[in-house]
Write a structure and sequence with these properties.
- The protein has helices at about 10-45, 50-60, 100, 105-120, 135-150, 150-155, 175-185; strands spanning about 125-130, 170-175, 190-195, 200-205.
- The protein is of the alpha+beta class and about 220 residues long.
- A four-stranded antiparallel beta sheet has the order 1-2-4-3.
- The protein is elongated.
- It starts with 11 loop residues before the first helix and ends in a 20-residue tail after the last strand.
């Protein structure tokens, strides 16, 4: 006698097929939503191109970074950006020109204070040259070399860009002649001293206010200038 199993077989294949179909639908929905999101972001400008990202980063660089917008050009005629003071122009340490705005702040403040006292004494005191770019200093040195004929003689009056205290913003030349003599007498009250014996116009912040100025160097070749 043949014994038969009355229990019906389990429909495994149809169930598995249904699950796979459901997963495919869900995956398709997710991909479609992601695609729509990318399109919306692109249209509204929320996605930045690499160039835009770099531009945004550059604009966020703080003042004082290595890249500065006020550096003078390296070619062409010298300009005020190099520290050039226009011919025939009398300026004080309070002027809004790179020749004085790029001076060491303590030096500039001392010259401004001395200028105020000199003015009260009836003595005008002007800055004839202050900070200079390396290019400006180099041109002055080349002119001195052509005039005096040797580096040894030229450097007694004009320092190289590498040694000049004008390039570092730590020296000023002042005028007129009476102002030079006035500052020789009163400059130490503000820490200002003539530093080279052959340059009565050249002053640096070389002592504390009210202090004693150091002995002058013979000329600029001994340090800078």
């Amino acid at each position: 006698m043949q014994i038969t199993n009355s229990t019906a077989p389990r429909p495994t294949r149809p169930v598995r097929s249904g699950i796979l179909t459901l997963l495919a639908i869900l995956l398709g929905t997710v991909l479609a939503a992601a695609l729509v999101g990318l399109v919306l972001l692109s249209v509204t400008g929320w996605i930045q191109s690499p160039d835009e990202t770099a531009s945004a980063h550059t604009s966020s660089v703080s003042v004082g970074s290595d890249v500065t917008s006020d550096e003078p050009p390296q070619t062409g005629p010298l300009t005020e950006a190099d520290g050039l003071i226009p011919a025939g122009t009398d300026i004080t340490a309070g002027a809004d020109l790179p020749a004085v705005t790029r001076l060491n702040p303590a030096l500039r403040a001392a010259v401004e204070a001395a200028t105020a006292e000199a003015t009260l004494d009836g003595q005008p005191l002007y800055v004839t040259t202050g900070w200079r770019s390396a290019r400006y200093q180099g041109q002055l040195y080349d002119e001195a070399l052509a005039t005096y004929g040797s580096e040894e003689d030229a450097r007694q009056f004009v320092a190289t860009p590498e040694t000049s205290t004008h390039v570092t913003g730590t020296a000023v030349d002042i005028g007129p002649l009476d102002a030079m003599y006035w500052l020789l007498e009163h400059g130490p009250d503000y820490g200002l001293c003539q530093t080279y014996a052959n340059e009565i116009w050249h002053f640096e912040l070389a002592t504390t206010p009210g202090g004693t100025c150091p002995e002058m160097l013979p000329d600029a070749s001994h340090l800078g200038g």
